[in-house]
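Q: You know discrete backbone vocabularies at least as well as I do. I have my own habits and do not want them to colour yours. No explanation is needed for now; the record alone will do.
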Amino acid sequence: MEGNDMNNPKTTRANFGTVRQLKSGRWQARYPREDGGPRMPGPTMFKTSKEAHVHIANVQSDRARGIYHDPRKGERLLAIYAQEWIENGGSRGKLAIRTTELYEDLLVRHIAPNIGKRAVGQITPAMVRGWYTALGKELAERAARPRADGGERVASGKTRQRQAYAFLKGVMNTAKTDGMVGSNPCQIIGAGMVRTEERPFMPMEDFTRLLESHPADLQPVIALAFGAHLRLGEAVALRRSDLDLEKGTLKVVRQAVQTRRAGVVITPTKTEDTRSVDLPLVTVEAMILYLASVPRALPAAPLFTRSTGKVLTRAQLQHAFKKSRDSTDLRQYHFHDLRHSGLTLAAQSGATVRELMARAGHSTSSAAMKYQHAAEERGRIIADGMSAAMRTGMNRPPKTA
């Protein structure tokens, strides 16, 4: 076992692998390739024969349990692997245009310059924690700097930090599937989770004020966005043929998406599903009045245009809504709150989770559940109000402790 002649090394054989001593005096382990090909050397040399045999035993055990990974597969630089991951559509094989642009920006700005210079197989949980902490400090410092134009400072960078971490975690999940790492090194609890504040419910009084403060040619858009629970891009992308006044339904097929490279592009909806929404009668009446006030058009024509005849754009609708909420002192609302409040009203009217999913175009029940919770809270208020009215009518004062 002590041979050191490279041309005639001492070799021991086992059922799975072999061990031999090299000219340097160190020991090499060899075992079959995963695809059944010729034996390959282990990823490193060992000081003793025993260490080499232990390595072989561990490889054999890990392969039997389906958890083995060859560290040499992880020699590709993280930045290069991440770029290929984006180009191949991420973990699902397809990324939305804006998601692709976001990931490319995160890669260039926050990953490639530092942790991206490491080989995928070298990334450890400690490295990820160090990178994550440093990124948080960098973004916070950047947010604290005064803007050159004297405007308000940017946000704290927490969202950006979360996005970068979630992106890295997704890349490393695929690296694990590819056998480049044994486990995902992104193990910071809660770091990639979205923590969004509950949006305010828009009472009908506030909705009416916002609606009436919009220009006359935009009021139908606001009415339909509320009644059909539309995202801003969906409202702008509607066509005449999507609205069926006889049935009182609206078909939502596409959205207008703002991109950095190509400007505004038309894509399928966010969940890539088509949905048909039964409209409230009030909304149908508003659409009848609107179509009666504009020239007839082909079914493929845009549903909404400005009074000048030009097609409505995302920027125009966003600007008009912001101007409307400022003029009515209802600055707490965003355009998306029209959708949120319309769905909450649907839940209060008795819509089930499945029905809310269909109206909203949600792909999972978890997104629709928050509207059910809102309905339950409203139900308690209604019940309390009923109780007060009943006590008054029945002349029964409330019990005291």
User: Anything to note?
Assistant: The two ends are 90 Å apart (CA to CA). The mean pLDDT is 85.
